[in-house]
């Protein structure tokens, strides 16, 4: 019988965090709904897990920031539904894991925190107040085999190719068509926490493809009020519709009038992107 | 002397009890039997291609400790680096049926399991000694 959740731990042996990824995975696997995936066997014989991966959502547990399990999923082009990093959870708890493998109160605290993170459903988010425009017109230009599109109006961009579009005091943030084409197939979106306050140019989560991880740099300051939950099941929306259905985060703006000074409007970004693409010879 | 320049790689061990045993056997080698004399290589890292693991296994003798006859660790070394200097198949020590039982958390291991760990670690240690003897 196929399981509804697949868990892929890194299973590293040379650091405590890797061992904790295994401990978390083994605990999760006590549920009949969970299929445990061995990273090495997956790499060697993907067909062994094909049915489970088709039927279930993949949760990846990385031990450290080398992110072996995430990289493996990326290399094999398997979409990740949820991801947790043991070292980051330990850091947030102010617990140093080190190299030695140990079974003590501290490591159990980390295991419990990781399990809680995996088991907790997405935070409740209020109904969106963002009013979507009926249609968006685009300007396009081509470079080699690539065609890049930029909205004609109402979007503002930072030079990290992240955009913001405003509706009252609420705005949506996303990445440009240029980013999604560079990354190729998006496999995972790591959103910020709802309620997180941030300044302009702070990190605001990341998106990940088999090729790279792209840090989202906030184009404006504000507070996260919603994330695009549709991307949990369909991260490819960022590829298919980077300016509309593939939005990433909804925010309550702090002072957009001031933030705007450091952003390009659509015509300026269009010119900026043309220069950038020509310079780096995409 | 090539001590300290002998690598040991355990299989990832998520599929079966043999994998749990192989992981603990490698830890026992590192912490009790040959402390400071072996380098453990992380198999997921080895496969990801980071951290210099593949380069180490190319340059120095490396022992694979596998939990079952799928021999994931041995096959990974041979695919990405070099021929293994030696290999241990836990299933050959504790029997295929036992090795294919469900993996366990270390807190659920019994004395019987710890005896399996000892046997697998002893076998690995014996291979280590043979490699050292050949190199002298």
Automatic annotation (TrEMBL), chain A:
<dbReference type="Pfam" id="PF08859">
    <property type="entry name" value="DGC"/>
</dbReference>
<keyword id="KW-0450">Lipoyl</keyword>
<dbReference type="InterPro" id="IPR033753">
    <property type="entry name" value="GCV_H/Fam206"/>
</dbReference>
<comment type="similarity">
    <text>Belongs to the GcvH family.</text>
</comment>
<protein>
    <submittedName>
        <fullName>Glycine cleavage system protein GcvH</fullName>
    </submittedName>
</protein>
<dbReference type="InterPro" id="IPR014958">
    <property type="entry name" value="DGC"/>
</dbReference>
<dbReference type="InterPro" id="IPR011053">
    <property type="entry name" value="Single_hybrid_motif"/>
</dbReference>
<feature type="domain" description="Lipoyl-binding">
    <location>
        <begin position="170"/>
        <end position="252"/>
    </location>
</feature>
<dbReference type="InterPro" id="IPR002930">
    <property type="entry name" value="GCV_H"/>
</dbReference>
<dbReference type="Pfam" id="PF01597">
    <property type="entry name" value="GCV_H"/>
</dbReference>
<dbReference type="InterPro" id="IPR000089">
    <property type="entry name" value="Biotin_lipoyl"/>
</dbReference>
<dbReference type="InterPro" id="IPR017453">
    <property type="entry name" value="GCV_H_sub"/>
</dbReference>
<dbReference type="InterPro" id="IPR003016">
    <property type="entry name" value="2-oxoA_DH_lipoyl-BS"/>
</dbReference>
From TrEMBL, chain B:
<protein>
    <recommendedName>
        <fullName>DGC domain-containing protein</fullName>
    </recommendedName>
</protein>
<dbReference type="Pfam" id="PF08859">
    <property type="entry name" value="DGC"/>
</dbReference>
<dbReference type="InterPro" id="IPR014958">
    <property type="entry name" value="DGC"/>
</dbReference>
